[in-house]
Each structure stands twice: as C-alpha cells, then as structure tokens.
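Dear Dr. H.,

I hope your travels went smoothly. While you were away I took the liberty of generating a structure for the chain from your last submission, since the lab meeting agenda had it listed for discussion. I wanted you to have the full record in hand beforehand rather than looking at slides cold. The sequence, exactly as received, is reproduced here:
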Amino acid sequence: MTFTTAPWELHRASATTVLSQIDPSATPGWDAGKNAAREFMAERGALLSELQERLYAQGRAGGQDSVLLVVQGMDTAGKGGICRHVLGMVDPQGVALRSFGVPTPEEKRHHYLWRIRKALPEPGRIGVFDRSHYEDVLVVRVDELVPPTVWDKRYEEINRFEEKVTESGTTIVKVMLHLSKQEQGLRLMERLDRSDKHWKFNPNDVDSRQKWEAYQEAYQDVVQLTSTDVAPWYVVPADHKWYARLVVTELLVRALVNKGLTWPTPQWHVDVQRRRLLETMAPDTAGQAAENGPTAVAKTARHTSEVADMVRDFVNDYERVNPAPVTAGQGSETLGAKGEGGPPEDTKKSKKKKGKKKDKKKNKKKSE
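The corresponding predicted structure, in token form, is as follows:
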C-alpha cells in the first residue's frame, strides 16, 4: 500500500504548470482510498517522528540542518489541518510554527523579508509557515497595496533569499494547497452552519472569495516564477483533506530521509560519565543499573533496526514506482525526480529568470 507514483513527481511545479489544468478534487497516485490513507499515514508518522527527533538531537549537538515547510492556499484550504494532523505526529518542542498576517507597525518599517528572516527555523527544528513571505506577492498584489513595479521584483528577490536559506542547511518544502472554489464555498458555509466553528469564520474570507480569479492568477505566477531547483513548489489537490495531509507527510519524510540523519556523537566520554554517576548512587541502585544495562543495549539495537527497516521500506516503496535507483541519506537530490535521481531541469522560463539573477549580481540590492 503506497503511492503508484512518487508524490514529489506528481505535484512538483515548474514554469509551465497551469493551475486550471490541475483537478483540486483528484487524488493522483493513491488508489487505496481514505481509510487506507489514514492507516498508511499513521504508520509513516512513526518514521517521521523518529527522523524529527534525530534532527532535533543534531541541532542540540551543534548541527546546522533544519526543515522549513511553507504552506500556502486560499482560505479553508486546510493549512491548519496540515499543522495539526501532520506536524502533530512529532514532538512539538522540535517544531516552530509561524503565521504571517498583516504586518505590524514595526514590521512595516523594514523590508518585507525582515520578519521572515527572523522566523526561520533554528538548527534542529522543523519550521512551519502557515502563510509566508508569499503573501507579499499574493495579497499585496490582489489588493493593490503596492504598485506592480514593486511586487514584480519580489519573485527574484524571494528566489535569492530562499537560495541563501538552503545554503545555510535548511531544506525548504513549499506546498500550495490547491482548493476548488466550490469546495471552499461548502467549507465556509459549514463554518456558518456550525456554532462551534463561528470562531473560524472571518467576513474577509468572503471578500477574498470575490477576488478568486485574481488570486488564481497571482498563484499561477508564484508557482511558475518561484519553483526552483533548491526550493520547488508542490501543487497538491486539496478538496480531500486526507489526501493533502498524506502527500505532505511523504514530502516531509523524504526531506528528512535525504538528510541521512543519525544520532549525534556526544562531546564527552560515556565511561567517564557512567563512573561519575555511579559515585552518586547507593550500592543497591548501582547494582540494579548494572542489571538493566544489557536490556537497554538490546532495546537500542532493536529500535535502531526497526527504524532502519522503516527507512528501507520508504526507499523501496519508491524504487518500485520510479525507474531510477533510490538511495537514502546522500543529499537533497536523493529519492529524486524524473527518473534521474535528482530534480527535473528548469524550463526555459525559469532559466531566463536565473539568467537575470546572474546579470544582477554586480548590483545586488542592499534590501536583501
């Protein structure tokens, strides 16, 4: 029971992605249905939790790796559900959730990326942006808060910014939850019908809905102009919440598997600390600890083997559906795409943007 095609293959956006050609109600690559998806996600959650703990441990020990999940979508697309149901499967102390609304007076005095940079995940964390810097080319554009000459420059600024973020050790996973207008209407109406959901309803949601086409055009440019090799977009059909959550789970597991995470080596000697600890124990307690030792060692070996099996299963699942060999833990290109073990090449439009980037290097903006 797994995807018939790797979700990062199915949903990766490019300069030729057309949102209107993607069915928001589809569940591509998954034929087993909703109940099977929930069971599969729960099983995968065990691996996600384990890998997240290793990432957190590495951060505590001085490692620089982190993951940033960017979740964008229209109102009711399921952004909060991703946070609760996917990130809810891991230790919350290793998750940093941020949501970006209307800028505060202080934030308005700075470059629009200033508040984003401050919120980037620390080493060892999985950061989650429920809405993000992309609001500055979505809401700002649709509501005409700044002229086109301002927001049009931001696509390339964002690409440069994200490239720097990835160079620092952060893997960026960007997900657009692609919701249909019909499904959004039903979800908003349910919030009005249910008194226990009134707190979720915002009259501004209807205002935004009236600008649906303008938002679709804005999202179209976002996925075409800012889906890069280092930070690709994944356009995930979101009419079925369970499907979107399942896909995001797989994308996060893949990001962590590709880091080849292991437990950090302590900066102290185990034997020395064991001796010091024993000096603080009563003789009978020390004796009990000695008896427990072999059991603890065996438990570690068993757990390590179980996790290795889960990683191997994950890799093998997609070896069967991808023509290229899949190898875990060798970098961001592993568990790759397009049958080549790595991300697909940018299309001409993306390459054109990259060309502009090279031309502008000599006059790099101070605002960055």
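Two observations you may find useful: The chain has 15 helices and five strands. Strands lie at 66-73, 95-99, 126-130, 170-178, 233-237.

With kind regards,
E. W.
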